[in-house]
């Protein structure tokens, strides 16, 4: 990482009732991303929220689903 660049390797992903997936945001740490995912999940909507690391999508070990 060079000066002036920020690494945001953690994504919060939302899946709606129809199976469509959307990136909610990018975050610097897993803890920060998980906090956002938990906050959104606590709202009681039917959507699923989870955290993925860029390059490790769909259950390859680094992301966690709520």
Descriptive keywords:
66 residues, globular, four-stranded antiparallel beta sheet, alpha+beta
Structure description:
The protein has 66 residues and is of the alpha+beta class. The protein is built from 1 helix and 4 strands; from the N terminus they run E-E-H-E-E. The chain has one helix spanning 30-41, and strands at 10-15, 21-27, 48-53, 64-65. A 4-stranded antiparallel beta sheet has the order 2-1-3-4, covered by helices on one side. A hairpin with a 5-residue loop joins strand 1 and strand 2. The longest helix has 12 residues, at 30-41. The model has no long low-confidence stretch (mean pLDDT 85).
Biggest sheet features: 4 strands, antiparallel
Q: Overall pLDDT, averaged?
A: 85
Number of DSSP helices?
A: 1
Gyration radius, to the nearest Å? 12 Å
* Class from secondary-structure proportions: alpha+beta
What separation lies between the terminal Cα atoms?
30 Å
Regions with little confidence, pLDDT below 50 for 5+ residues: none
* Coarse morphology: globular
Helix content: 10-25%
The strand order across the widest sheet is 2-1-3-4
Find the count of extended strands (DSSP E, 2+ residues).
Answer: 4
Strand content: 25-35%
> What's the helix-strand series?
EEHEE
């Amino acid at each position: 990482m060079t000066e002036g660049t920020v690494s945001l390797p953690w994504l919060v992903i939302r899946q709606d009732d129809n199976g469509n997936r959307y990136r909610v945001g990018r975050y610097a740490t897993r803890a920060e991303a998980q906090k956002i995912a938990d906050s959104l999940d606590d709202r009681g909507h039917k959507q699923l929220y989870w955290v993925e690391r860029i390059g490790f999508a769909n259950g390859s070990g680094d992301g966690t689903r709520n």
